[in-house]
TrEMBL record:
GO terms for cellular component: cytosol. Purine salvage pathway enzyme that catalyzes the transfer of the ribosyl-5-phosphate group from 5-phospho-alpha-D-ribose 1-diphosphate (PRPP) to the N9 position of the 6-oxopurines hypoxanthine and guanine to form the corresponding ribonucleotides IMP (inosine 5'-monophosphate) and GMP (guanosine 5'-monophosphate), with the release of PPi. It is found in: Cytoplasm. InterPro entries: HGPRT, Hxn_phspho_trans, PRTase-like, PRTase_dom. Residues 9-159 form the Phosphoribosyltransferase domain. Pathway: Purine metabolism; GMP biosynthesis via salvage pathway; GMP from guanine: step 1/1; Purine metabolism; IMP biosynthesis via salvage pathway; IMP from hypoxanthine: step 1/1. This is Hypoxanthine phosphoribosyltransferase. It catalyses: IMP + diphosphate = hypoxanthine + 5-phospho-alpha-D-ribose 1-diphosphate; GMP + diphosphate = guanine + 5-phospho-alpha-D-ribose 1-diphosphate. Keywords: Cytoplasm, Glycosyltransferase, Magnesium, Metal-binding, Nucleotide-binding, Purine salvage, Transferase. Its cofactor is Mg(2+). It comes from Aerococcus agrisoli. One of its GO terms (biological process) is guanine salvage.
Length: 182
């Protein structure tokens, strides 16, 4: 598995340090607001688990499963909600947790959905932000790391459901997915 990694972008220690900082920023902003923290499955799970443990506020957890990739390496552009929230977001402060914001299409759909459901506020926390690939006009309010336009894996992010458990974030060797490129 590690042999498929071209380069490690962020070590487990880099990630932990940045998550601690993000947790402090979110604690300051959401003190006494009792936010709903919404993890976008599956990629955000590791990041979300570590992040909420760094937040010293009352909060509620919920999850959505939204797909725009399938088994490829490029976003399909079509966003499909597979699992919706259990909680009602009306008049609540919502924090969307994403592993990576790439084209922004998925995030734009989720953001609009929460606005339509009358959330008091909606903010986005992304472990990774890839602005070079942005197509949709979305704002990432809190960013762990800004990354180049490379295919990354590890710390929750996958290629065809593999590599999520890697403790670091790395660039996947193009030879691993070359057969999928046109």
């Amino acid at each position: 598995m590690h042999n498929d990694v071209e380069e490690i972008l962020y070590s487990a220690e880099d990630i932990a340090a940045r998550i601690k900082e993000l947790g402090q920023e979110l604690t300051a902003e959401y003190q006494d607001k009792n936010p709903i923290v919404v993890g976008i499955l599956k990629g955000s799970v590791l990041f979300m688990s570590d992040l909420v443990r760094e937040m010293d506020v009352k909060l509620q957890l919920d999850f959505m499963d939204v797909s725009s990739y399938g088994s490829g390496v490029e976003s399909s552009g079509h966003v499909k909600i597979i699992k919706d929230l259990d909680a009602d977001v009306a008049d609540r402060h919502v924090i969307i947790i994403e592993d990576i914001v790439d084209t922004g299409n998925t995030l734009a759909k989720i953001y609009d959905l929460f606005q339509h459901r009358n959330a008091a506020s909606v903010k986005v926390v992304a472990l990774l932000n890839k602005p070079e690939r942005r197509v949709a006009n979305v704002q990432v309010d809190y960013t762990g790391f800004e990354i180049p336009d490379k295919f990354v894996i590890g710390y929750g992010m996958d290629f065809d459901e593999d590599y999520r458990q890697l403790p670091y974030i790395g660039i996947l060797k193009p030879s691993v997915y070359a057969h999928l490129l046109h």
